[in-house]
Amino acid sequence: MTLQERTLRQYMELRSQPCLREIAKETGIQQTRVFRILNGSKMRLDEWEIFNQIVVNESACLEKLARECLNELSLEHLSGLQQMMMQKLEWQRSVNLASNRLAQA
After folding, report:
1. Which terminus in the chain has less CB density within 10 A, N or C?
2. pTM score, whole prediction
3. Under a CB-based contact definition with an 8 Å cutoff, are residues 14 and 62 in contact?
4. In whole angstroms, how large is the CA radius of gyration of the chain?
5. Cα 84 versus chain centre, distance
């Protein structure tokens, strides 16, 4: 998966599959250009930076929440969170591996 594909996937998941008009309004990229990007055209650097900044800002909120959890939750609760995160990560890696194998077949 390319950097562009990963960034677009994260953006689309973050915004719950928005329509072209919503993406264009949020990013400031013309609607026809958004359509071409979503259909496989390569992004220019400035376009990628717009999408990436939106994703990064959301990640910052998650990082802030993680820091708050580290400061306020007991070790028992933190251990439970850690275990759940590891399980989710292992599951996602398995899905990605299976997907890659299907794509290569």
Report:
1. C
2. 0.68
3. no
4. 17
5. 19
Digitized pLDDT (tens) for each residue of the chain, 105 residues in all: 799 999 999 999 999 999 999 999 999 999 999 999 999 999 999 999 999 999 999 888 889 999 999 999 999 999 999 999 999 999 999 998 998 888 887
Quick one: three-class SS letters along the chain? Answer: CCHHHHHHHHHHHHCCCCCHHHHHHHHCCCHHHHHHHHCCCCCCHHHHHHHHHHHHHHHHHHHHHHHHHHHHCCHHHHHHHHHHHHHHHHHHHHHHHHHHHHHHC
The structure tokens 């969170």 sit at 81
List Cα–Cα distances, 71 to 32, 62, 65, 76, in angstroms: 46, 14, 10, 13
Q: How far is CA 83 from the centre of its chain?
A: 21
